[in-house]
Amino acid sequence: MERRKIGAAALAVGAVGLGCMPMSWAYSGSRQRGDESVRAVHRALDLGSTLLDTADMYGPFTNELLLGRVLKERRADAFVSTKVGLLVGEQHIVANGRPGYVKRACDASLRRLQTDVIDLYQLHREDPEVPVEETWGAMAELVQAGKVRSLGLCAMGARGGRRSGRRLYDATIRQLQRVQQVFPVSAVEAELSVWSPEALGTLLPWCAARGIGFLAAMPLGNGFLTGTLIPGEGFEPDDVRARHPRFTAEMMAANQPIISGLRRVAARHGEGVTPAQVALAWVLAQGTHVVPVPGTKQERWVTENAAAAELRLTAQDLTEVAALPAAQGSWD
Predict the structure, then answer these.
(1) What is the pLDDT of residues 44-85, one digit of tens each?
(2) Which of 16, 90, 111, 177 is 20 to 30 Å from 306 by CA-CA measure?
(3) Is 169 a catalytic residue?
């Protein structure tokens, strides 16, 4: 698989990563099976999808434990990205950016992951009670201690306060400017997909101009852009999509023209090419510093997603995708 560089540290990863969250968190709990997920991670590494993206809050903690089962055997094959800064309670999630907590959390993640170093340590959310420079400074000390290789920032804001449009990431850019004064940012993780392209406005160009890697979260639109979901089929109560305004039966039906457009492009590239692969290829085409991180817990989807790294969209394809209707349904 093509390799791409993450940040000034020039850490190389496969062009398509693996989002590990669905294996333990937020999606269809009844379908989460540890052994199946372990096989999916092994398959990703076999195919060159080396970037494994997790967080201590996923589970909580169980996602890192699951990855640890693989890393114990194949640490040299993987690029490990995990996150810190969020604590999960019974009915709530709170931010904690206190320096002492960050250092303890890192040690705990290292134990669960069964490794002595984290390749990319990301701040999941800023703690409103702690200056972000203090949190980032503690993370920088982890780099100096040899426990972490590089630092990143997760720019996926709480959906309840989400805004649409080009200025969506202004606050994130201001935050990045502040932490850059403390220690270099190697990567930013934010949502980017055919149906959520807002990062193209300011955040992606800001990262490109500074040599900062961009991890595209939810590049398949929480599964919608695969074309495998049926409007009205419904989701399990613990599935995040059960509360997502784009996943009501009405909005899923209204957004089918996006899937139809992706299918048309896929058909031009031959039998077997899927809408999901076109959606991932579109993300890859947004810059050589961009690495999509589609989440899955099944080998079959890992294999399909990895193959998207070989799909080259033409200028006509990109123009056609750009002309697709905007997604209906939002958090506003």
Answers:
(1) 999 999 999 999 999 999 999 999 999 999 999 999 999 999
(2) 111
(3) no
